[in-house]
Amino acid sequence: MDHARRLLGLMWRSPTGRVGVILVTLLVFAALAAPLLAPYSPTAIDVRHRLAPPELSHWLGTDQLGRDVFSRVLVGTRATLATALVAILASAAVAAMLGLVAGYGPRWIDALLILLLDSLGALPMIMLALTLAALLGPGIGTVLIVVVAYSVPSYARLVRAQVLGLKQQDFVLAARAMNVPLAAILVRHLLPNVMGALLIVASMDVATVIALDTGLSFLGLGADTRVPDWGMILSDGFAAIRATPTLVIAGAVPLVLATLGFTFFGESLNDALDPKTRAAR
Amino acid sequence: MSDPLTIEGLTVRVPGRGGKPAIIEALTLSVRPAEVLGIVGESGSGKTTLARAIMGLIRASAGRIAIEGEALPDLAERSFRRLRRHVALIFQNPAGSFNPRLRVDAILREALRGLGGGRSPAALLAMVGLDAGLLDRHPHALSGGQARRVAIARALAADPAVILADEPTAGLDVSAQGEMMNLMLDLRDARGTAIVCITHNLAVVRHCCDRIAVMYLGRIVETGPTGAVAAAPLHPYTAALLAAVPVPDPARRRTEPPVRGEIPSLFARPDGCEFHPRCPRTTARCRTERPALRDLGEGRAVRCHSPLGVAA
Amino acid sequence: MSLLAIQGLSVAYGAQPALESVSLVVARGEIVGIVGESGSGKSTLAYAVPGLLPAAARVTSGRIALDGVDLLGLDDAGLARIRGSTVAMVFQDPMTSFSPLVPVGRQLQAFLWRERVDARAARRRIVEMLADVGIADPERRIDAYPHELSGGMLQRIAIAAALLARPSLIIADEPTTALDVTTEAQILHLLREIRDGHGTAILVISHQLGVIAEICDRVAVMYGGVIVEEGPVEALFRHPAHPYTQALMACEPALLGTDGRRLPTIPGAIARDGAGCHFADRCTHAEPACRAGSPPWQPAGDGHAFLCRRMAA
After folding, report:
1. Taking Cα atoms as reference points, which of A225, A179, A203 lies closest to residue A72?
2. What ipTM describes this predicted complex?
């Protein structure tokens, strides 16, 4: 835990790192405390007060159905971040497995996996999303599959590259010379030493995943419409744009903040973990 | 009592190329019980490859290995898993041979588990003169000397008959070199473990080893008892190596470097005797005919058409 | 006037002293060796001269005068002027002395930036210099990339690079440690030839007594950031006066026979706390007085002195 504390301390030193940490903390806090902080239920319809501009009782105004936008944004933060987190964890897990096997296994398995990963990476995401939505129906599952399909090829390649380098290192050879079983070599010697790189790439990817998820949701391919997320807020906002731009802004601003925040966070985390930049301080 | 390790006709090829060239070519070597054997070679001689091939970390394309006189059935991973209970390897950079995330205790336990050793990690540390308090440390918290000793302790996990030490003195100051070699000699005296010292440090080999084997371009070119070889080397390369060691005595400076040129690339192995382009005694036969390793009695063997001091 | 005069140089890394009041003189055309184990400060001394110490190092006192010029008072521009032209360095690992992306010939051309030579003249000079340092077929090698060349060849080229701007002093930091013993012999021979042919002074840093004995005229032995003995090479090797020098020579396997299996060692490790002789904790002759105050310089012969309370044997 003091490892984490030390990392945060390092990240705090740079201006972008500071912004990143603050934004991410705000977003995570908003996501966790959303039900407590939201002044209204995000789905409470009040047609009499539809399309109200921002005012004291509705900080960001209301949408076409009179729902409080601020509450929707807060609850949406929770939905969006949760989806992003699950998607990234799933991608990392799948990529780690594939990367380990490709990097450490026999050359034919490596060739086969590279072929599969490259093919997957060559698919345009929107096409994949639309196809899957048509086949499986829209929903959180589809979104997750699309995001995982998008992230896995590059993550797995990264893991594979790390493994290829690591497997020639003395400590891996030493483990083989001690008759350490294959599973133990993969899990105890290789995996922990690739997690670092994966973590960095994933943290810099959070922004992209959020944008992807929001975009899919904006297109109506996302989760069910009762639980709002930023994509839905955005798409509702576009529908009402002639009446008021507030809704679009309300949907876009958290997305921009999240993108900035997670990008800065990821980059300064990368610098903090990189032994070379660390040594220079 | 049979030799703890015998290697016959070991060939290791450059990976990824169909067939040639060889890094190690038909190498034959025995390690005698409880002996200290020095395998001497420069970079490009293949000595590190040899150590790794013996342990099965690099694939050999041909050869036979025998443990305690009993031949291994093949060169598959299964056979090497057996071999590793009798032969242990210490890497050139000991700290680098530890997983940086594991504590010393876990590192030693892993070896004990994999090789089926019966001792405790603390007992292994005691065998190399280290305190059990080090068990809780991570590799980066060990000093260079401590890391080396831990590496030796790990190698002792299965009480091997042979320890291969890859460049045990590299990067060490002269006093630390002495400590390292003395520790290994103590182990040989106490447990009868044979030590194979793979190095380019001739001065240390000359002093500490019972027997010496000289490698050039993946082949053994001379073997023999250290004293006899140092006093009267048979192969011109051995003589050049011995003469090239800088002596800490200004009165014995050399006016000419003892050998010219450099070790040729594996991809451009000379014909005939592979040392002939650099050898001061080359004859026509040397340029075309590859010499075989000849046994000259008294434990000495040499791969040369006209060895030094021997009538043709 | 001597070529290089270091007086009372003290360098520290933060609170940790690395050099304590070190003084050393190198005459023109002289080969001086600095021998010591790791942690002795020999590399710090070598890197201090051309101003190549890391940012964390602080020179706390002393002077370095090269050809009369006070090096410590120079700014970056001043240092850039003397580097290459007055003092050049050869580093330990030839593989990392060159950029892997550029052919060696072009890298050597960079050393000729001060002289306004056109490309063809530069190439000719480089080819000549490569031949001078014993590179066979220099016309072809000049266009080779570093990874295509062996360590021995690269170190020769590094020496050629050091010589291109005709410096008065070459500082060689462990020039042969990364090389095989047969190549080492050739490089040491080359360094001596360069001094004989060009009159270049050479400051050789090494932890190997054999290297020092092979080419040096004078030797300084360092321990714990201090020079503990200094003198002509024959005198120092024949009659080492300081207990540390004596212990070093006793450990040297090349000076021992082929029998007697155990190697002598120097027990203990470098400890640099406080007053008194730094070697006292590991010295077999130590007395209480040794730990009380700094030991004095004592003569041991002509131009030969050592830092110790004991009388020369």
Report:
1. A225
2. 0.89
| pLDDT at residue A224, rounded to an integer | 66
Q: Do B250 and C237 touch (CB under 8 A)?
A: yes
Residues A40-65 as b/e (b if ≥16 CB within 10 A, e otherwise) read bebeeeeeebbebebeeebebbbbbe
Give the tens place of pLDDT for each residue, A250-260.
888 888 888 88
- CA distance linking residue C224 with residue C10, whole number of Å: 12
φ, ψ dihedrals at B90, nearest 5° = -110, 130
Query: Across A271-275, B307-311, C179-183, which has the greatest mean pLDDT?
Result: C179-183
Q: Which two tokens stand for residue A88?
A: 């990234």
**Res. C206: pLDDT tops 90:** yes
| Residue C237: pLDDT over 80 | yes
Touching subunits for chain B (3+ Cβ pairs under 8 A): A, C
Query: How far apart are alpha carbons B11 and B87 in whole angstroms?
Result: 19
Q: Tally A–B CB contacts below 8 A.
A: 55
Q: Which residues in chain A have their CB less than 8 angstroms from residue B157's CB?
A: 178
**Given an 8 Å threshold on Cβ–Cβ distance, is B97 in contact with A193?**
no
Does residue B242 sit at the C interface (CB-CB below 8 Å)?
no
Comparing C221 with A249, the larger pLDDT belongs to C221
Substitution target in C251, C256, C258 with the highest count of B β-carbons within 10 Å is: C258
Q: How many CA atoms lie within 13 Å of A214's alpha carbon, on the beta-carbon side?
A: 27
Model confidence, pTM? 0.83
Contact B90, B155 (CB under 8 A): yes
Cα B167 from Cα B216, distance rounded (Å): 16
